[in-house]
Structure formats: structure tokens, C-alpha cells
Amino acid sequence: LAPILNPKLQKDSSVPKMLCQMDNHLACVNSVRWSGSGKYLASAGDDQRVILWTKSAYGGGAVFGGGGKVNHESYRVAYTLRIHDGDVLDIAWSPGDVWLATASVDNTVVVWDVEKLPSTVAILKGHTGHVKGVTWDPVGKYLATQSADKTLRVWRTSDWGEEAMVSEPFEECGGTTHVLRLDWSPDGQYLVSAHAMNGGGPTAQILERDGWKFEKDFVGHRKAVTCVRFNDNIFEKHLEEVGKKAQYVCLAIGSRDRSLSVWLTSLKRPLFVIHDVFESSILDLAWSKDGLVLLACSMDGSVAAVVLNEKELGTAMPKDTKSALLKKIYGQNIGPAQNAKPMLIENPELLKLAQNGTDNDSEAEASVAVNGNRATPSLVKRGPTDKQLEMRTSDGRRRITPIYIVPNSETTNQAVMNGNSMSSESFGKYQMQSSSSEAKSKIRVEKLDGVVEPNVSPGKKSSPGSEKP
After folding, report:
1. Distances from the Cα of 342 to the Cα of 337, 345, 428, angstroms
2. pTM (predicted TM-score)
């Protein structure tokens, strides 16, 4: 961004303004997103393809047929993802770059497994119209999508089921926008939609995470809102009149009326509004990592940069403080949700352990206070844990008592209840680890003498020594 932010460098012909031109798409490119780590650049277009690019060691060179254009950096295609049956309009990386979500006019949203590309995790088919926007909850628990079917849907990442569907704010909306880019606030408390209506006027609807209520919105644009984008930072500013720090977030809104507005949640009115920069609708927005530069692109082919400072926005909260705040709001789940994939939980008891952090099963003993110390709850054993018991029925068949293997979640649960401190990394390791990755246990078989009377097959009397395959 040096030639954009510095007017002197902008006029310096030795400073390259275009770093690289990539030509592998066969049709219009609709969305481009960097992964959180910066390893991949994902692009999606009307050719129904999603391409993941990675930087190449090759230094670049002249662009073939580019009329003298030169690439100062080189990017190669790492993956080409083909599954959609229509134009791909929006893409989004999950926290930790675990998944990549793509939205298409084929009415579906595809979730890709980034570690096992081109494998997919889920294909979400709830929408009945073109899906024009997709965004991830910063905690990693939800995925939200907005469609031309006049609905906004929230999906769970635990089982990819539909958590909520909101339609009322969008009932009066027309299909006039090319995209509907919605976004989550960095604290995960609010989801802001594109193109909603209130009293006949266009708005950006605010949905609260608690119950998905929609009682507030951002108003002022004359035409439909096409995209919203939160600044990734949570800002702080010292209020001298009350002697406290105010915490707030920042949001940019783009519209078909060619205007751009920036809002702070600590203010009732927009921080500023920019008119007449573009000749056509605003299609997308992006904030820099430090949160002080806002980039906006338009359908007219131009990109505008808005440069801000800390005096205007406030001081960005440090990353460790932000992480601690999220853990305070959502608990330790913030760790595994960002850094690991949830395992498929088929046992209801394990599901309770994973979701609540405590075992509410009736077979667990309640914790009690003994001499001022809290006793550690323990689970009732459901069977032998070190051997497999084998007996015979009276008709010669074998009866095997299966071994009880203690799941990892119980071990983790005990550690949490014992008061042991656990980092988000270790918490994610134990809670989200797949049982298939464990070393195979050595099971000891113990044969017991005697005959068991139940389960005798009617009309069959075999000697105890005989055995059926």
C-alpha cells in the first residue's frame, strides 16, 4: 500500500503500483479474500470456480500480452475448486483458516476442508435463491449467509444444521443488488446484514447473537446496502467526563447510492459519510490489519482508500486483551473453535461434556464441600476398563462383556473441575481431538468358568464345548 498511502511514492515511477496480474479465471471475478495467515489468496468468479493462490519463489516478469505490464511478484495456483453449478459470488475464511465457505447462484453454500482440499465438509442447501453473502462468527460457532430469497440464515458448525432463519426485515426488499455481503462484529455479539428495509427505506439490519433479535439498524443510505465490513479491532477511548474507558467497534457500509459510511457503536450518528467517489455501486470493503486504512471497490472498476488515525478511531485493543475478552464472554470454547475442527460426537453424554464443560449425567456424583474443600466429581464406571470378560451360555455360545474405554472428554472434564489451569491450545487438543488418532489399546481377554442361563436359543441344546462360527 506504500504508493497508495504516500503521495510522493505514488508519483515515483520506480515504485511498482501493480504487483501481480493473475489471469487463470475464465470469467468475471466476484470476490477475493486473503486467508488469515496470508498463505493463500482465494478468488471466485462467474466461471463457477474457486482458485487458491500462493506466492511463488519466482520473481515475476513481463505479463504475456499485457502491453508492457510487469509482474513484480509471482503467484501460482495451489488449488482449483470445482463443485458449484453457477457463479460464485462470495467467499469467506473461517477463524484459524480451518474451513473456506463459498456462496453461489446455485442456491448452495459449500464448506471446504482447507487441510484436505479439494475435500468438502458440508454443502448447505437451505436457501431457495441465489446466495450472495457469507461470513463466519469470529468464535467459530456459526456461519451466516444472506440470499436473494429474502432470508438470512445462521448455520451451526457443530453439525451444519440451521440455527436460525430471519426473513421479516427483508420482506420488502427487491433483488436489485449484485451482492449481499453481511458481517459479524469482532466480539461476535452482533451480525449486520446487507439490504434490509425499514419503513420503506433501505437499512443495514443488526441481529443480536442472543436470540437473533432484530430491533436496531443502520439508516441513512438512499439506496440498497450492498456490503458491510467490521474493522477487526475492538477500540478503546478514555472518557474524561466519566473517568472510564469506552469499548466499541467500527463498521463500514457501502451502498448502491455510491456512498460510503463509517460508524462507531459509541456514536448515534456515522463518524463520516463519503459521497460521489464512485460512478457506480460499491461492491466490497476491506480493512487493513491495523484498522486504519479502509479500501472500497466499485462496479465502475475503481478502488478508493480512506486513511484514518487513532485520534479519529481510538486505540485498538491489544490482541491478548481481545482474546481474554472473548474467552470471558464465550468461555474456553474460543480456543478449539478457532484452531481445531470439532469431532463428530455421537454419544449424548460426550455432547454434554463438550458443550457445557461439566457432566450433568444422572450417573455422575455431585460435587460436595468437605472441610471447606470442594470434592472432585467422579463418573460411575460402566464396566471393566482393562479387560474383556468372556463366558458361555448353556447352548454353547460365547457371551462377551465389552470393555469400557474412558473417552478423552471425561479426562478433560476432570482436569477442568479439579481447577487445573488449561491454555486454549491444550483445551482444544483434548476437547476436539478425534478418537481415531489415539494409539490402539491392548485388550486383555479373561475367560470365566460356568454357564450363563439367559439367551438360550429355543429348541437347541449343544454341549458347552461346541462353538458356532
Report:
1. 8, 8, 9
2. 0.70
Q: Which of 251, 132, 237 is nearest to 189 (CA)?
A: 251
d(CA 277, CA 304): 8
DSSP 152-213: EEEEETTT--EEEEE-GGGTT--S--S--B-EE-TTSSEEE-SSEEETTEEEEEEEETTTT-
- φ/ψ of 425, rounded to 5, equals -70, -45
What is the three-class DSSP state of 82? strand
Nearest CA to 409 out of 468, 338, 331, 354 is that of 354
Average pLDDT over residues 99-106: 96
pLDDT in tens, 222-247: 999 999 999 999 998 887 777 788 89
The better pLDDT of the pair 389, 149 is held by 149
CA distance linking residue 296 with residue 277, whole number of Å: 10
Looking only at the bridges linking them, the beta strands covering 387-393 and 444-452 are: parallel
Cell of 116: 484436505
Average pLDDT over residues 1-17: 83
Q: How many CA atoms lie within 13 A of 275 on its CB side?
A: 5
Ramachandran category for residue 284: left, alpha or beta (phi over 0 → left; psi -120 to 50 → alpha): beta
Q: Which residue has the cell 493462490?
A: 53
At 311, list the grid cell. Answer: 485520534
Residue 287: predicted pLDDT: 96
Query: Residue 262: exposed, middle, or buried by beta-carbon count in 10 A (0-12, 13-18, 19+)?
Result: buried
Nearest to 1 by CA among 303, 313, 326: 303
Cis peptide before 118 (omega within 30 of 0): yes
